[in-house]
Amino acid sequence: MWDQLVQWDRDIFSFINSLWIGKFTEFWLFVTQIEHWIPLYLFFFYLLYRAMSWRKALASIGMVLTTAVFTLWLTNFVKNSVARLRPNNEPVLMDGINILQMPENFSFWSGHSAVSFAATTIVVLLLQHYKPSKWYFLFYLWPITFAFSRIFVGVHFPADVTVGMIIGLIAGCVFYKMTLFLFDILKNTRER
């Protein structure tokens, strides 16, 4: 059964990856680079600052960064424990796929997916809590595009990306609850 799931993951990867061979290469290389998303993070921080008091905004920004660092640490721990080869390093795949990057570390689960979904989730939930808007959910276009870019550049399987998304959603929700708990503690200590 496990071997069948792994084969399906490879087949789905090969199909998705082959859709973009020779097309939009510059776009996917741009999208997959973390540093190109820094302006979006700064925009998130600005929105948090506008939605709440400056103390809560600073605490929220700190929690967003903590969420990202924790999710990255957990991802690297699991990657090294599972030790799944990336598609670009798998001998049975590497000659027939589109490879635009050549990382040498392990694949499962996608750190890009996990961290971007975790950060987006905590930001969306905090903004929704303090200044509700249905438009915040459009922010998920970023991590979805970011996560799937990893398949298109040849460095992650669909299962890596999907599990990374789920882990990121869970981490974002947990750290959102922790942030609200922190705000309650800060409020109670100020009232004493």
TrEMBL record:
A Pfam family it matches: PAP2
Spans through the membrane: 27-49, 58-78, 106-127, 139-157, 163-186
Phosphatidic acid phosphatase type 2/haloperoxidase domain span: 61-176
Gene3D superfamilies per the UniProt record, alphabetical: Phosphatidic acid phosphatase type 2/haloperoxidase
Entries under SMART domains matching the protein: acidPPc
Keywords noted in UniProt: Membrane, Transmembrane, Transmembrane helix
Domain of life assignment: Bacteria
Protein name as annotated: Putative membrane-associated phospholipid phosphatase
Organism: Nonlabens marinus S1-08
